[in-house]
Design a protein that fits this description.
Layout lengths: L2 H7 L1 H11 L5 E6 L3 H14 L3 E7 L9 E4 L2 E4 L5 E2 L3 H9 L4 E3 L6 E4 L4 E5 L3 H12 L3 H15 L1 H7 L7 H8 L1 H6 L4 H7 L4 H16 L7 H12 L3 E4 L5 H10 L2 E4 L1 E7 L6 E6 L7 E6 L1 E4 L16 H4 L3 E13 L11 E4 L10 E7 L4 E7 L5 H7 E16 L11 E3 L2 E3 L10 H20 L12 H6 L5
Parallel strand pairs: 1-2, 1-14, 2-10, 7-16, 14-21
Antiparallel strand pairs: 3-4, 5-9, 6-9, 7-8, 11-12, 12-13, 15-18, 15-19, 16-17, 17-18, 20-21
Length: about 475
């Protein structure tokens, strides 16, 4: 087809024209789930398949999934993933691509580490002063963790290079091992075991590291060491940011950017098509369980955790291996005035809990800012707070709103890591959450699934990861969306 024809009718119309003539194959793709994984997957699929991709997103709730908005005290906040690391390439690139703004976060005016009775450490937000306080309590052993986190972040960037070369992985284990064999090893040992191997003191483990696990994943040091260091990286290395308009806006904007069709519905099943090719999606657009519709697709992407999807899948899919229990997390937003957590002492902006023998009913308390009346706070806990518990924490309560959801996988070791490819043409983005759950991890899983699907539909051979992105290549590699 000549460049003149392409110029006259446009690339999109040209592809549609060729599809009609049967000269180009059109691919029907269903994405089950409209969170950051599903919406970024639609974006990556369009990049790879161009206009030959006919994509539908099935979402039973609002676009955004676990990225949600909470309004309290006249202000709006993220109730799901609220911070993003400065090295998270996909999250930043997609944010800028859809026209949203990046807001860099400062260190705040202080963080307190609370053991149920007292603050074992109070940081002011001043880098110089805080370094002396940390070294004074923990010694120079903290440097070993920082160096390890820096090394891990540097190595982690290899995944962007591999994906830019269109290397795809059928399982989470393959992805981790190909990025670095050390990553897969860490995913199979507990954070506490790994820290002991590094010679990190129990005091550092039980206070600084435990606080990071509590506030990021609501879990203890028995999580796998890979997710443990992902959690630590944000506090030790690099900077943090968020989408100024709210992180929950990113999936919404991705839907607009791609122009894909969104079907608000509950999907009942994804089963092999009677034609022997592709899959039949059965769904309902109402609460009526008898009002089901069916539609055939060439491929299906699952972009929602299987533990609560209530989804019937083909018999040959290993549901047990690929379904993980999730950690319940409750975010309680309170508009009011926080009472002194330690009597007679002023509260720091953020309060993180350390490992303690005390019966602590919250994991962390974050100061969100001033409101139309008094102040707004966000309290993380493993179960809903009672009125009595809220009354213990706050001297004045104007308004309370709660988000109660299964936020992250329960990270136990040793553990099997789910597959991205459940069957030919059937893929699972959330498999990556078994290694670590974060906005960027969802985007990486989403890009991997887009590459697998592209290779499957276009009959493209995968690239051997050992032939690309060596050390010398990484020195020249520049990340591009």
């Amino acid at each position: 087809m000549s460049g003149l024809v392409r110029k006259c009718i446009g690339t999109r119309n040209l592809v549609v024209f060729l599809v009609v003539l049967g000269l180009v194959t059109s691919h029907k793709i269903a994405i089950i789930g409209g969170g950051i994984g599903g919406t970024s997957n639609a974006f990556f699929l369009q990049q790879l398949l161009k206009d030959t991709a006919q994509i539908k997103i099935f979402e039973r709730g609002d676009i955004g999934g676990r990225l949600r908005e909470m309004e309290i005290g006249g202000k709006s906040y993220d109730s799901g993933g609220s911070i993003i690391h400065s090295d998270n390439f996909y999250a930043r690139a997609l944010t800028e691509k859809v026209g949203l703004k990046v807001k860099n976060l400062d260190k705040g005016s202080g963080t307190g580490f609370y053991d149920g009775k007292k603050f074992v450490l109070k940081l002011t937000g001043s880098t110089f002063k805080d370094k002396f306080k940390v070294v004074g309590r923990y010694g120079f052993g903290i440097r070993d963790i920082v160096k390890d986190a820096e090394k891990m972040l540097k190595t982690f960037k290899r995944i962007y290079c591999l994906q830019s070369k269109q290397v795809a992985f059928k399982s989470t284990a393959e992805l981790l091992n190909s990025t670095s064999p050390d990553f897969l090893k860490r995913a199979q040992v507990s954070m506490r075991q790994n820290l002991k191997t590094l010679g990190v003191s129990e005091l550092i483990q039980n206070e600084l590291v435990a606080a990071a696990m509590h506030t990021n994943y609501n879990q203890e040091l028995d999580v796998n060491a890979f997710v443990g260091f992902v959690s630590l990286a944000g506090g030790l290395v690099g900077d943090l940011w968020r989408v100024e308009e709210g992180n929950f806006r990113l999936p919404q904007k991705l839907v607009k950017e791609t122009g894909v069709e969104v079907v608000k519905s509950r999907v009942k099943s994804v089963l092999s098509s009677s034609s022997g090719k592709g899959y039949t999606v059965t769904y309902t657009m109402s609460g009526d369980t008898e009002d089901f519709k069916t539609e055939d697709f060439d491929a299906v992407v699952l972009a929602t955790p299987l533990h609560n999807a209530e989804l019937e899948l083909p018999d040959d899919v290993d549901i047990v291996k690929n379904t993980k229990p999730f950690q319940r997390t409750v975010a309680t937003f309170v508009n009011g005035i926080l009472a002194p957590v330690v009597p007679g002492q002023e509260n720091p902006e953020d309060i993180l809990t350390v490992w303690s023998k005390e019966d602590l009913f919250f994991s962390s308390i974050g100061f969100k800012g001033s409101a139309s009346q008094d102040f707004n706070y966000k309290v993380f806990s493993k179960k809903p707070l009672t009125d009595e518990e809220i009354g213990k924490l706050f001297s004045k309560v104007n308004e309370v709103k709660t988000v109660d959801w299964m936020a992250y996988p329960k990270y136990s070791v040793p553990d099997t890591l789910p597959d991205f490819e459940l069957a030919p043409g059937l893929y699972y983005i959330n498999a990556i959450e078994s290694a670590a759950s974060a906005i960027e991890m969802s985007c990486i899983g989403s890009k991997n699934v887009a590459l697998l699907l592209y290779q499957y539909l276009e009959n493209v051979e995968n690239v051997d990861f050992q032939t690309v992105c060596q050390e010398k290549d990484l020195l020249r590699f520049k990340e591009e969306l």
